[in-house]
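Handout, tutorial session.
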Amino acid sequence: MFLVFWSCDSKIKEKFNYEEAIRSLKSDISKLPTSEYKTNLLRKTELIVLRDSSYKEVLTKNTFDSLKTEIVTEEYLSHIIRQLDLSSIEEIIPSDRIEAYKFTYYRSFSDELVFITIYSQDNQNPKIKAQVIKEDRDCNPMVGNLTLSGNCFNVLFNNTSNISMVDWNEFKQLIESTMFWQLEQTDYNNSVILDGSDWVFKSTKPISTDSIIKKNIYELSPDTLNPLYKIGNLLLNKVDYDFGEIY
């Protein structure tokens, strides 16, 4: 996901009690109202314990706080996304006979998250669903209001509309001409882009009555000739919303 806050200062080693930090985190979570969000946070906290047990002795308070912030913030966003029915593409099964492409767009210094899903069942009645969520970067998800109008994320745009078969076929032709299903993930280990954008695609299509194929691919600040830029830009232009400068 997009929100990762890791400390890189290895010169400062604070005295840090890992078990006490975990107990404190669980205590904070237990004070939240009973909800799916609370349940998932407790589950992810247990995953932290399992994942980090081998090197917990070398963790500092800063790195643990960063990990906690990442887990809590991502789960909070996931909770909002599920309420908006944005995650349904992950739940598509072969019998649904649905071809779908979900595009997530996020700019480094923007507080807006953009989700656009274009889909069709049996190559008929195609639709496009678009949502724009504004993030309050000063909000603490641990105490945030878990509603769509909560103080951590607000919905600026939420619309689903039918599109013509001409528009659907235009999109499919672009998928074919860019060889989308053959694209490989770019390696960003040495990339340095301070003011960039994330272009994330999750896609699925049926290939028989009992099987489907799925593809997840990510691009960091693609140029205008990049296949994923062409696909994402086409989807942005299909939505009646002012996204500002696209980069």
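The second record follows below. Compare its token runs with those of the first.
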Amino acid sequence: MKLFLLDAAGAELILLLPGAFVLFLFFWGLAEGFIINLFKINRFWRSVWHAMLVNLVSVIAGFVILNVTDDTDHEDLFNLEADTNHLAAWGIYWLVSVIIEALVLKLLNRSAPWSKIFAASVVMNIITYVFLYFFYFYFN
């Protein structure tokens, strides 16, 4: 199974299954909103809303990255398979997701300290990517 993945639902999911994308966006919004709330960045439902926005921006960034790069030169990097041979690519996507989501989360919560924002982004993406890796590995 080849995947174009940047974050929670993945960029391909928008085109393939729009309804599934909305469900994944809501599910990850709840999960990551809970994490944002745990870091006391915002109230729960506002955290859910922010998590959904952050993930949407992250997926859009995935589209931009995939369209800007020449995938014939970087096929192994951007065509992810859920196996141990592609862990470096998963790591790069994770790092890009952490940075993008931290920046957007900071824009949405200007009064929150960077340390809390960055820590929440790291935790959110660790949970997301571990779940996705095992999910894709299981169904591969």
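Points raised in discussion: DSSP finds six helices and no strands in the chain.
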